[in-house]
Design a protein that fits this description.
Length: 785
C-alpha cells in the first residue's frame, strides 16, 4: 500500500487538500457549546392555583396527579412539594430511557387525570430538563428615565405588553434562539367599582354586573344557510366587547335602564402582583434567551448583538442591558482550550526541532498536526459530535499520540536511510514495518478510553464525547502517518540528502551533558536497588493513604465574581414590601456590588421550576468587580443577616450549565418530620421541639421551619340559611371588598383581559364590621353576623 501511494503523490496531495477544504468548512458548521447535548433524566410538573391552600391543593389536585404519574415507566424517584397556590412534582428517571418518550407519556397521564381535577383550573405545566435549557444570557429592559415609572403605573404595564408582543417575538425570530422567556411584566385589568351610593340607591351588586357583562360578551358561532345551489356561512355575534365599550353597556336597575358608566367607575389598572423583578432596585422587565441545541454560540451572540443595536436606535426611550452572559464563559473556555491545543502542537514541534537535530523532520510533523486536527473536525461533523469542553479536552489528551505516530514513522525511515538503503526502498520498508506496532499502540490507548462510553448515568453521557474524540484523533493521526508522511518525506529528501544550514546549527548544540547526567543517575539507582525499592513501596502506601483522605468534590473550585442570595423574610409581605426591604439592605452595604438584580416572589418564566415562590421570598444575584471584593461583600451580607433571626437565608453560586448538569438532588442530610399516630403534619411547636432534640444530640445546625400566619374566615352555614343567604354570597361579598372579584374576561387583541368588580378598599376587620350583603328578602345583613 505504501509503495502504491508513494508512486502517486499528486493523488495523495489532492485527496488531503480536498479533506482539508471540507474539514475547514465543517469547522464553521459544528455547533459550539459548553457541554455535549445530553438529556437530564428529570421532568417537573408545575401546578398553579392561586386561590387554593396547600392542604386543599394536595388533596384535590396533587394526589390524583401522583396516582396517575406513578404509572409512568422508568421512574426512579417521585417528589412533591405543595405550597399555598402552587405545587411542584419532580420525576427522576433511570438514566438511559428516552426522555422524549417519557415526556409524551407524562403528558398523556396528566391529560387522563384532568377529568378528576377541578374544571376551572389551568392545565399543569410540564418541563423537561436539558443541559441546553439554561439561558445563554438575560436581557433587562427599562425606561431610560425611571422617574415616575413605578411598577403600578400604566406606563410600566404598557412596557410589559410591548416587550411581550414586540421584543420577545423579534428575539424568537432569530434562527439561533429557541425561546425568549419573559418575567417582570405587569398585566392590565379592568376594574369596575360602583359609584358611592349606587349600591344603596340602585341596588347594584357584583352578580348583577357579572350577568350584564356575560350577556354582552357572547359569541353565537356560525350557521350554514342554503340558497338554491349555493350555501353560505352566516356568522352570528352580539358584537365584540372591548375595554372602551364596557361603559356603554346598558344595565337594568329596577325599572330603569342605565349605562354602566353612569353608576360605576371603570378603570384599567395593574393586576394584583405575585412577583417582581428589580435591576439595581428599579422594577424592570427581564428576558431569558435560550439557544437552539444545534446553534453556535458565537453566531447567536453576533445576531443578538446586531438586533439589540438596532432596537436601541429604534426605541431610544428604552434601556437594554445584558447580564449573566454565558457566552463570555463559553467563549473564554473554548478559546482557552483551542489555544492550549494549538500551543501544545507548537511546543511539540519546537521540542522535536531541537532534539531531532534535523529541520525537515519537525517540518513534516508540523504539517501533519494541523492536517490531523482539521480532518478530526470533519469526522466530528460526520459522527454528530459538537465542539465542547469535553471533546476538545479529548483532542488535547490525544495530541501527544498524534505526534508520536509521526515520529515513529519518520524515525524508522531515517534508520533505514542511515543503513544506506535507497531512499524509495527505505521509505516503503520503514513505513511498512511500523504499521502493525502503531496500530497496536492506537488500539491499546483506545481500549482505555472506549469503556467511558459504557459508564452509567450522566458521567457516561458526558465522557462519551471525550472517548470518541481521543479515538478519532488517534485513528486519523495513524492514517495520516502511514499515507501522507511517506509522500512528504520523499519530496523533501528526494533531490538531496545534504544537511540544511539549520541542521548544521542544531548539531552545534551539545546534548552530552544530558546524556551524561542520565548515565550517572542510572548507575546510582542500580547501586542502591534495595533502598529505592523500600522508597517505592513507601510511596505506594502513602499514595493509597492520601487517596482516602483527600477531599472529594463534584467539580474543582473556580474563582467567582458573583453570588446568589436566597432570602425568605418569613412575613406576610406584598412583593413591593419585599422590594423595599431588599433595597434597604442593598443601600446599607458598605461594599457595594457592581450590579445586582432580584427576583421577588413568583416569576413568570415558562421554563422555570421556581415559579411558585411566595412574595416574602427573593433570589438576589450580586456581581462584584473581582474575587476579593466578592469575599468582602459575602462577609458583610452574612453579618447583617445573622443579626436578623427571623430571616431564612442562604448564599450560593450562580447557576451555570456545569452546575445544572451536576446539581445535587438534595442536601446530604434530610430530616422528614411527621405525626405517625394521626398521619397529619406536626404542629409548629411539636416540630420545633423535635428539631431542638435532634440538633442537641447530633451537633447539626437545623433551620427552623418556615411558618406563615393566616386569617381564617369561615361562613356560619346555619345563620346563612336562617337569613336566606347562600354561604357563597357572603364569601363573594367579602372578596369584593377586600380584593377584586373577577367576573369575566374580554378579548383584547391576542390576549384576554380580566374584568373584576371592586368596592372601595377596606381592611379585613373593617369589611367584616361594616359591609353588608343582600338577602333573598332584600334585607341587608351585616357580614359580621
Amino acid at each position: 500500500m505504501v509503495e502504491f501511494l508513494i508512486k502517486r503523490p499528486i493523488a495523495v496531495f489532492t485527496t488531503f487538500i480536498a479533506l482539508l477544504v471540507v474539514g475547514l468548512v465543517t469547522m464553521g458548521l459544528l455547533p459550539v457549546s459548553m457541554l455535549p447535548t445530553v438529556d437530564i433524566p428529570e421532568i417537573t410538573i408545575l401546578v398553579d392555583r392561586p386561590e387554593s391552600s396547600a392542604r386543599e391543593l394536595e388533596s384535590t389536585i396533587v394526589q390524583p396527579l401522583r396516582r396517575q404519574l406513578n404509572q409512568v415507566g422508568g421512574i426512579e424517584a417521585l417528589k412533591c412539594a405543595t405550597n399555598n397556590g402552587h405545587a411542584e412534582i419532580q420525576l427522576r428517571f433511570k438514566y438511559g430511557i428516552s426522555m422524549d418518550m417519557a415526556y409524551i407519556e407524562v403528558n398523556e397521564k396528566i391529560d387522563g387525570a384532568m377529568g378528576y381535577l377541578p374544571r376551572d383550573m389551568d392545565r399543569p405545566r410540564v418541563i423537561k430538563a436539558s443541559a441546553t435549557d439554561l439561558p445563554v444570557f438575560y436581557l433587562t429592559i427599562n425606561y431610560r428615565d425611571t422617574t415616575n415609572k413605578g411598577v403600578y403605573s400604566a406606563d410600566f404595564a404598557g412596557l410589559g405588553d410591548f416587550c411581550t408582543s414586540v421584543i420577545k417575538k423579534r428575539l424568537e425570530q432569530l434562527p439561533d434562539v429557541a425561546i425568549a422567556d419573559i418575567t417582570g411584566i405587569v398585566k392590565p385589568e379592568i376594574v369596575i367599582t360602583p359609584k358611592p351610593g349606587a349600591a344603596e340607591v340602585y341596588g347594584i351588586t357584583a352578580e348583577m354586573i357579572r350577568r350584564t357583562l356575560e350577556s354582552n360578551n357572547v359569541t353565537l358561532g356560525n350557521v350554514v344557510v342554503r340558497d338554491g345551489y349555493y350555501q353560505y356561512n352566516v356568522r352570528l355575534s352580539s358584537g365584540s366587547l372591548t375595554s372602551e365599550s364596557i361603559g356603554s353597556i346598558l344595565i337594568k336597575v329596577g325599572t330603569r335602564i342605565m349605562r354602566l358608566a353612569d353608576v360605576c367607575t371603570i378603570n384599567t389598572v395593574s393586576q394584583n402582583m405575585s412577583g417582581l423583578y428589580l435591576e439595581n432596585g428599579i422594577p424592570s422587565i427581564n428576558i431569558a434567551v435560550i439557544k437552539q441545541q444545534e446553534s453556535r454560540m458565537d453566531d447567536l451572540q453576533l445576531t443578538v448583538n446586531k438586533l439589540l443595536n438596532q432596537m436601541k436606535r429604534e426605541y431610544p426611550a428604552l434601556a437594554f442591558k445584558t447580564s449573566r452572559d454565558q457566552t463570555m464563559l463559553l467563549s473564554y473556555t473554548i478559546s482557552n482550550l483551542k489555544q492550549n491545543l494549538w500551543l501544545g502542537g507548537f511546543m511539540a514541534f519546537l521540542v522535536m526541532f531541537f532534539f531531532l537535530k534535523d529541520t525537515r523532520t519537525p517540518l513534516i510533523i508540523g504539517i501533519t498536526i494541523p492536517v490531523s486536527l482539521v480532518i478530526c473536525m470533519l469526522v466530528f461533523y460526520l459522527t454528530n459530535l459538537t465542539i465542547n469542553v469535553i471533546s476538545l479536552s479529548g483532542l488535547i489528551l490525544g495530541i501527544g499520540m498524534i505526534v508520536d505516530n509521526s515520529i515513529i514513522v519518520i524515525d524508522n525511515i531515517t534508520q533505514h536511510v542511515a543503513r544506506c538503503d535507497a531512499l524509495f526502498k527505505a521509505i516503503v520498508k520503514g513505513t511498512s514495518e511500523v504499521i502493525v506496532p502503531m496500530l497496536s499502540a492506537v488500539l491499546t490507548t483506545c481500549s482505555i478510553f472506549i469503556p467511558l462510553v459504557y459508564l452509567s448515568g450522566m458521567a457516561g453521557a458526558l465522557f462519551t464525547d471525550q472517548a470518541m474524540s481521543v479515538s478519532i484523533g488517534l485513528f486519523v493521526s495513524f492514517i495520516v502517518a502511514i499515507t501522507l508522511i511517506p509522500v512528504i518525506y520523499l519530496l523533501l529528501y528526494k533531490k538531496s540528502q545534504k544537511k540544511w544550514f539549520t541542521d548544521r546549527l542544531l548539531e552545534k548544540i551539545s546534548w552530552n551533558n544530558i546524556d551524561g547526567f542520565y548515565g550517572k543517575g542510572y548507575d546510582f539507582f542500580f547501586r542502591n536497588k534495595g533502598k529505592f525499592a523500600v522508597v517505592v513501596v513507601g510511596l505506594l502506601v502513602a499514595g493509597v493513604w492520601l487517596f482516602k483522605i483527600l477531599p472529594q468534590e463534584r467539580m474543582p473550585q473556580t474563582s467567582e465574581t458573583a453570588l446568589v442570595l436566597h432570602l425568605d423574610y418569613n412575613r406576610n409581605l406584598h412583593p413591593m414590601g419585599s422590594a423595599t426591604l431588599i433595597n434597604r439592605l442593598m443601600a446599607e452595604l458598605k461594599n457595594k456590588p457592581a450590579l445586582w438584580s432580584s427576583y421577588i416572589g413568583a416569576n413568570q418564566f415558562v421554563m422555570s421550576k421556581e415559579s411558585g415562590a411566595s412574595a416574602s421570598e427573593a433570589t438576589i444575584y450580586l456581581e462584584a468587580s473581582d474575587e476579593k471584593s466578592l469575599g468582602k461583600l459575602k462577609r458583610e451580607i452574612s453579618e447583617k443577616l445573622n443579626s436578623q433571626k427571623e430571616i431564612s437565608w442562604e448564599i450560593g453560586k450562580p447557576e451555570n450549565i456545569i452546575e445544572k448538569v451536576f446539581e445535587k438532588n438534595e442536601a446530604p442530610l434530610v430530616l422528614h418530620v411527621s405525626n405517625r399516630t394521626t398521619g397529619e403534619m406536626p404542629t409548629p411547636a411539636e416540630a420545633l421541639i423535635l428539631l431542638d432534640k435532634v440538633a442537641g444530640s447530633s451537633g447539626y445546625r437545623l433551620p427552623a421551619p418556615v411558618l406563615q400566619s393566616v386569617f381564617l374566615v369561615e361562613p356560619d352555614v346555619e345563620k346563612c340559611r336562617l337569613y336566606g343567604l347562600e354561604p357563597g354570597s357572603a364569601v363573594q361579598a367579602l372578596k369584593t371588598v377586600i380584593n377584586r372579584f373577577q367576573i369575566s374576561k374580554i378579548l383584547n387583541g391576542s390576549d384576554y383581559l380580566p374584568v373584576s368588580v371592586s368596592l372601595p378598599y377596606q381592611s379585613l376587620h373593617q369589611a367584616l364590621n361594616n359591609q353588608t350583603v343582600m338577602s333573598a328578602q332584600k334585607t341587608e345583613i351585616p357580614l359580621k353576623a
